[in-house]
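Complex record, two chains
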Amino acid sequence: MIRTVARKEMLEIIRDGRFRWSAAITLLLLCGALAMGWQHYRDVASQHEAARRDTRQQWLKQGEKNPHSAAHYGVYAFKPRMPLSLVDPGVDPYVGVAAWLEAHKQNEFKFKPAQDATALQRLGELTGATVLQLLLPLVIILLTFSAFASERELGTLRQLMSLGVSRSDLAWGKALGISGALAMLLLPATVIGVAGLALTAENGALAGSTPRLLLLFAGYLAYFAVFLGISLAVSAKASSARVALITLLGFWIFNGLLAPKAVTDLARSIHPTPSTLQFARDIEHDIENGMDGHNPADSRAEALKQELLRKYNVDSVNKLPIDFNGVRMQAGEEYGNQVFDRHYGALWATYDRQRRIHDLASILAPSLAIRSLSMGLAGTDFPQHAHFSQAAEQYRRLINREMNMDLAHHAKGKPVYMAKESLWQKIPDFHYEAPGLGWVVRNHTLSLVLLTVWCLAAALAASWMSRRMEVI
Amino acid sequence: MLFLIAKNDWRNIRADRTLWAIALLLTTTILYGVHNGASWVDFQKRTIQGALADEAERHAAIKQGIEDANAGRTSPPSWKDPRSPYAVGYRLGSRFATMPPAPLAALAVGQSDLLPYYFRVTVNSRDTMLGNDELENPVHLLSGRFDLAFVIIYLFPLVILAVSYNLISGDKEDGTLALTLSTPVSLPSLAMGKIAFRAAFVLTLGAVLSVAGALLSGIDLSAPGAAPRLLLWMGAVAAYSIFWFGLAVLINAMGRNSATNALALSGLWLVFVLLIPSLLNVGIKTAHPVPSRVEMIQAMRHASDAVTAERSRLMAEFLEDHPELAPAASADTNAQFAVRSVAMTEELERRIQPVLDEFDKRISRQQQLADQYRFLSPAILTQAALYDLAGTGVHRYKHFLNLAANYHQQWQAHIQPKMMQTVKLSTASIDELPRWHWQEEDTADVLGRAGTHTAALALTAAFVIAIGVLALRRFPVVG
């Protein structure tokens, strides 16, 4: 019975001009967005790869220099692009593309691509993610709002019931039929998306991202199921097709447009972000005066001097077997690192608490759950940006330690000490390993759970409402 | 007659709960939007005050430091000696260039969360000012803020469509249309009467709430330019709303049933508010792609490496051009160092300028294209007008960038000669450091730009209404 209902439903949808049009437009937009995403990914990935090689060569070929000058010269860390960013670029346009890794300072990533775009960017960007999160649910609503409501208005629902079709068979049949029509839209897009990924797979990108891709796919299917279930439930309950449509459109607007913005301001007011000015001032203050406020830089250096004099049992810095400046600068770096860890740690914890509010708000709007999950799986959420920043920062600390230690061990007694390429070679090339699927999933457990809850609740609502729906 | 129709409509709608639901929705969203805008403005103001306090504190410390060092109480190393123009110009004495929020800034956050509103100005080359943005959770930048402009651009049309999608079709379905039209009233005047009532309701509610919210949140209407900006703001909102009412009339005139009208109107909303802007954004980016900032960073680094490699030659050339600045043969290394650093900064700026110019050129081309095609969607026109009037769009930011660049030059011109002549700064010379003066954008310019957009909106609205009224003449009242 279910099959008969499903076949009838699907046939009816496919014959409907409204479906053909909306499906064609959505498919076109989705493929267009994926193609653009693919091209953008390819361009940016190759630019960043070239720049990465370039910055390495600059470091190696910087010529004879004092190691501390080399640390000041530093290198740049360029944020790599994840292959799945072609589906969901996530926060990539809103974080900087590169950070300068220099002595004494942990720098922010600079140059957000969105700053180089017009204000149109803020009205909406055409990406695979926007089509999947915003437009496809709309197509689902358009296909489903009249499922029961218009059969009731036409009187065919009463006929069906009189034939002894069970309500749950009818609901399942409708759900399957609509899913079938949707699959005709999604299948080509998926094939194109996967083909795009395979084309960029010079370095095993496809193989590496397969688990992420599968989970992403499952996540979006669950999200679509939520809309299908809710639409069926509303269609069963609503007094007319018109009321069903308007209710569902209201939910769609709340879910996709109102909720993300409303939560942004809510999260900001509950967990305020500091200003750059305040942030920089606090760091400067802690380095200058000590984190507890009673341990200024000068007395830290003095204490270090006394400690070294005691250790080597000498009475002046000149008699130390090592270069005091190198040791002092490394101690300064290490103190600075503690300060940076504290302040960046606090900032990122604030962002994380804000993210938690976004995730919790997906109790009201499933779009927030899928958005968070989708960015996470595509490798374009903030935690993964922070993960990269952290790796770059560790690399900066490595460079500084090597440079300072070289000074400590070789600069003793030389008025002008210059190091050569052999020292620069000691610094390994910066290689970044993106976190695995497990790490990402742990970060997004809440949204994963809430999306599942939504899915179950929508299925329950659909079956509950269809079992109790009025026939006339 | 119009009044009678409107009055009757009022009675009908009053009995319906939708109107009250809509009034409640508008009230909450507008007040929430204005509140959010106001707290953002407040944050910016506090940050700017913090910057000025920081500056005052540092300058006081410098003066104290100069007195202490002159009196021999301290002997700071040259890199943080408050008497050294080098230390003061690069770090200790730096001042902030700030852009205070415009009078109506609380009404639209616009681009102000993405673009910086203060820079720390030093003797360093100009490019070092770039990229020092305000901290913000990138997810928040991606979502954008819930401000009044958002409510107007996205939600207002939906509210309008919700109250008018069945303007005529509803009456027809109820069977009252034929009855009404049997009295001496024409269909166009019936439609206009109904629209007039609904427009009056939605617009009055919107206007009263916006102004009340704005005043409650501390907008100062006596600030220069605030009142005319607010008036034009209302004008733009009215024109945008009338466009959507017009569209509802036009769709109703097609004579389909209410459900089809609702579907068609939501489709149009989707096209104008979401699809056209994002397609235009994609088109513009494809037509005039901005070169990669990654490549810019590399180009700047190559330039800076080249300048460093050629520093001796550059210094010799610089001294040929400025013999008066040549340190005496006996001068200390600080003077040599200062001359070399000024020569290098100058050369670096000269070499980087073409790279930066290329960026500015591409971005302004994108902007030009966006300006040309914004007439494709009333939502884009409205966004442009509202951001401009609130002073949170790209125009005021560019104005700020220009002022900041001038100030940076002024700062360099003041400090660099002192660096090269190794002047010892006195407490009086700290007070003489160039001060930042914010100069508001010319109100006439702002009103001109936003006025053009509003006029374009009004024209579009008038056009849609005219077509709608024409189409109503062929409306199938029965059947």
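Note: Residues 74 and 102 of chain A are 5 Å apart (CA to CA).
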